[in-house]
Design brief:
It contains four helices and two strands. The longest helix is centred in the middle third of the chain and has 27 residues. Helix content is 64%, strand content 4%. It is mainly alpha-helical and 112 residues long.
């Protein structure tokens, strides 16, 4: 999206520090944070290292399931339907974790 409209406004020192602090906690630029808030989204704070460890583990499990599926399909001795369903369940879980920890949510704040 090309942004062609420039907006300029003044903040108090406290407001500027608060904006900077919130942008840093969400790992967004101040401008990106502002644009999310204008579009009624509440950004999530950056999760701690435990989240990324869990995501790496989930990704490894999903990769292993995929490799097992490919090998079992080639050899023809596993119930591929069940194995594929389990792999899909893991991928879905991984997406849910990402959604919960990373993606901004639509705000309930009603502007009047």
């Amino acid at each position: 999206m090309k942004r062609t409209v420039k907006k300029q406004f003044w903040l108090s020192r406290d407001e500027a520090q608060e904006l900077q602090k919130k942008a840093k906690r969400t790992c967004l630029s101040e401008a990106a944070l502002f644009r999310l808030l204008v579009r009624d989204f509440e950004p999530k704070e950056k999760p701690d290292d435990r989240f990324y460890d869990v995501m790496r583990q989930l990704s490894a499990i999903g990769n292993n399931l995929h490799q097992i599926t490919v090998k079992a399909n080639a050899l023809g001795f596993l119930d591929m339907q069940k194995l594929n369903a389990e792999a899909e369940r893991w991928h879905s879980f991984q997406a849910d974790v990402e959604r919960q920890f990373l993606r901004p949510e639509k705000s309930d704040l009603k502007w009047q």
